[in-house]
Amino acid sequence: MRNRWLIALAAIGIHISIGSVYAWSVLTRPIMAEMGITLSETTGVFSTAILFLGITTCFLGNFVEKIGPKKSGLLSTLFFGLAMFGTYLAISWHNLPLIYLCYGALGGVGIGIGYMAPVSTLIRYFPHNRGLATGLAIMGFGFATLFAGPTMQQVTASFGIAENFLIMGTLYVAVMLAASLYLKPPVDGEARVHAKMQVETGPTAADALKTWQFASLWWVFFVNIACGIALFALAAPMAQDVIGMDAGSAAAMVGLIGLFNGGGRFIWSTVSDYIGRGRMYALFFLMEMVAFWQLGNTRDIFLFQAMIFLITSCSGGGFSVMPAYLTDLFGTRLLGAVHGRMLTAWAAAGIVGPMLVSWLRAQTGGYTVPLLFFAGCFVLNFIIALVLQRFGIARAAARFHAAA
Question: What is the pTM of this model?
Answer without folding.
Answer: 0.80
